[in-house]
Amino acid sequence: MAIFRTIRYRLPFVISLFALLPSSTYAACGLPYNQTPPDIEDGWIAYPISSNLKYPRHLVLDTEGTILIADRGTGIVALKTKTDKDGCVSEDSRNTLIGDRNLNHGIALSKDGKKLFASSAQEAYVWDYDAATGKVSNKKTVVQGMNGDGHTTRTLFIPDVAPDKLLVSMGSEGNMDMKCLERDGGCAVRIFDIGSIPDSPYEFSKDGEILGWGLRNSVGIGESADGGIWTVENSADNMKRGEFDIHVDNPGEEVNYHGRINDDNNELKGKNYGYPQCFTAWDLEDIPKEQDVLRAATNDPNPGPTDGNFWTLEIGQQFSLQPNRTFNDTTCNKEYIAPRIALESHTAPLDIKFYKPDDCAKSNFGCDFNNTAFITQHGSWNRPDPAGYAVGYIHFTDNGAEPRASVKQSEDAFQAILEPEDEDACPDDCFRPVGIAFDKDGRMFVTSDSTGELVVIERDNGKGKGQSGGGSNSNNGGGDESAAGTVEIGKWFWVPAVVAGVWGGLQGLAGF
């Protein structure tokens, strides 16, 4: 009986030890991931709030805080969120705002919130939109003539400083599209006047003013604090320079600057960014020198450009695939616009959005990330070691005008928040981020198309409430999961030790 008296007397002590466990250990935010959970950097929280969307791409928030998602295969989905007493965000309700399976990627909202724009592979449309009632009406075609195979995403963007302008991006019809040597082809971001939408649709190539061209597939468009327009460019695959295969680590993806759209003296408006002749250097060791390419092509032991000098490449500069005496790396770097930052090859950046809260001190990410550019990397398919599958950021200067890093510092410019636990498992078992949007509280919402998820990313700020990896749900895209989700595994590692220690102490006290 002494044994049981000892256990009885010690039991409150054991219970009190478990009471000391932090509450965040017992309840993490969000749903399980539909794949192996990504690694989350220290100081950040990321968790799914929806896990059974069809194929979510870009997204915006309306004036009521409803998230509007271009969900390929469905149309436009309207998703409302709620926040509980612990600060956890979850899906409150969801409905199909526009049922149209042809709407595959682009979405934008006028600055007054009363016009909703969305795109198919061929056209861009507009509806009257009432955020209070969640209703659309009066559909019109705004831009047409974007037919073509290859890249079928038509990104839409309305700048804050030019709310009467709609930017539309159209990519190439293939990996190496020679039609893009002409200004009236695709491979461009064009500007359309939506201050007064005409009765007849604009023709993409005929009526749109060129913001930038020579762009293979600029899927992401963002606006910095000073009104500058930035795009992220998906560069070419299966690349050779002359006879030399360089496709594994080249070319680099691009962060391109197009100037301030409301600046009448914008010298970058209408400029060519090089595709399909000039590409961005990422791994310099993998790119053969011009003279070696020329020597192999001509059997001339002493080849040289017409000016007698070869260009010495640096990271982020542009190179020619087939350099010759009249068109070479010098041509690329003197006559075309190079990126401001290069990104790792084949990472496939699909969105860029700037964190620009009204009051950074009261916003979730705080002032350390004010004016920072956040970028999604959808991930590679064309290299032996997968790359990308990440959400991260590039710090900009305090006034938001330029990246803090120079192009020569491109290798360290992009800092990941969310990235694969095991890149070798990608793409099949990885989160594949696409679109970015911020809410009024400064929280970031990110879509993952192939996994059907919507994820919220926040700063931890000492709350310790979110998943830092969490659990996984093997049922891709399905299931009515509880918002309680899975606990953060990392916070449980010491619980068995506590239990074992307490049990061992009881054994000693009880004489077991």
Tally of separate domains: 1
Low-confidence segments, given as residue ranges, are 1-26, 468-512
Task: List the strand order in the largest sheet.
Answer: 1-28-27-26-25
Give the end-to-end Cα distance, rounded to a whole number of Å: 13 Å
Please work out how many helical segments DSSP would assign. 6
The helicity comes to 10-25%
Shape-level CATH architecture: 6 Propeller
Approximate shape: globular
Main CATH class: Mainly Beta
Q: What does the secondary structure layout of this molecule look like, with pairings?
A:
Elements: H1 2-19, H2 23-26, E1 39-40, E2 44-50, E3 56-61, E4 67-71, E5 75-83, E6 89-99, E7 107-109, E8 115-119, E9 124-130, E10 135-144, E11 154-157, E12 165-170, E13 188-193, E14 202-203, H3 204-207, E15 209-213, E16 218-223, E17 228-233, E18 240-241, E19 244-245, E20 253-260, E21 271-272, E22 278-280, H4 290-298, E23 318-320, H5 329-335, E24 341-343, E25 349-354, E26 373-377, E27 390-394, E28 415-419, E29 433-438, E30 444-448, E31 453-459, H6 495-510
Parallel strand pairs: 10-14, 15-21
Antiparallel strand pairs: 1-28, 2-31, 3-4, 4-5, 5-6, 7-8, 8-9, 9-10, 11-12, 12-13, 13-15, 16-17, 17-20, 18-19, 20-24, 22-23, 25-26, 26-27, 27-28, 29-30, 30-31
How would you describe what is shown here?
Keywords: Signal. InterPro entries: 6-blade_b-propeller_TolB-like, Beta-prop_PDH, Quinoprot_gluc/sorb_DH_b-prop. This protein has 512 residues and is mainly beta. It has 6 helices and 31 strands. The chain has a 5-stranded antiparallel sheet with strand order 1-28-27-26-25, with no helix packed on it. β18 (240-241) and β19 (244-245) form a beta hairpin.
